[in-house]
Amino acid sequence: MKQSETTSTTGYGADTPLARELADLTARRRALEGVSVTFSGPTRIFTISNQKGGVGKTTTAVNIASAMAQLGGRVLVIDLDPQGNASTALGVAHTADVPSIYDVLINETPLADVVQASPESPSLLCAPSTIHLAGAEIELVSQVAREHRLRTALQTYLASQQIDVVIIDCPPSLGLLTINAFTAATEVMIPIQCEYYALEGLSQLLGSIRMIQKHLNPALQLTTILLTMFDGRTRLAQQVADEVRGHFSDEVLDTVIPRSVRVSEAPSFGQTVIAYDGQSVGAIAYQEAAVEIAGRAARTGKGN
Hints:
alpha/beta; 12 helices; globular; disordered N terminus
C-alpha cells in the first residue's frame, strides 16, 4: 500500500460530537469543584411559578434547592402544590396524617411544627403538601387575611431559624395558594420550556405579578428566568431561547437545563437529580444555575 493511501488511526474519535460533549461535561464538573459560595445577608425568598403545566417547575424547585444546600446554604422548600411532587422528590413524608402546609394556612399551625429535613441533607428542609391542600383554595376564601397567611407564618419562622434561601413551589394556577406564595416572596423565578408556545400565558402571569406588587407586596420582583427542557439538536429550542432572551435579557440565566433522562428518573426514587446522579448533565446544569443565582445576588446586593 502506498504511503498516501495509509490511513492513520491515531486520535480516531477524539473530535467527534460525543467526545466534545464528554470533554465539555468534564470541564464543567471541574469548574464546579472550584466554586465557593458564601451565604449572608437577608433570607432570599423565591416563588417558582408558571401557570402553564409541564415546564419543569417542581423539578426546578427541588433541584435548585438541593444545589443551594450542596453549596453550603440552609434551604427551605415550601410545597404549595396539592399534588405534593416536591415533597416526593425530597423524600419527605406527606401522607394524609402528616402535619403539612395545609395546617399552617388553615389552622395557623406554626411552620416549625411541619418542617421536615430531607434525607438528602440536614440543610435541605421541606414543609410538605398533603391531599388536604386540594381543598385549601375554597377554605381560604372565608379566612381572615387570606392572602397573607403564608407570609405571616414564614416571617414568624424566619425570626427564630437561620435560613438562607426559601423556595416556594406553586400549583399551575393563579389561585389563592399562588397569591399567598407571591405575597410571601421577594423574588419570582419562572421556568420556561424551550418548546412551542413557550411564552403562552406569560403575559397573564406578569400581569398577576404587577397586581401583587401594587396591592399586596411591593417588594416582589421578577429576578430569574430559567430555560428548561433545552434540546440542542433542534432549531426550535434555540429559536425559543433567543426569543425569551430578547424579551427578558436581564432576567434569563446563562445556564440552560437540557432534556435529561436522569432528571426525569430521579423523583421516582424519592430524590433530586443532585442526589440521584450528581455527575449527570442535568445535575451539573442545575448546580451551575444555582451558582449563577447566588452570583447574581452578590452583584445586586440581595444577600449572597
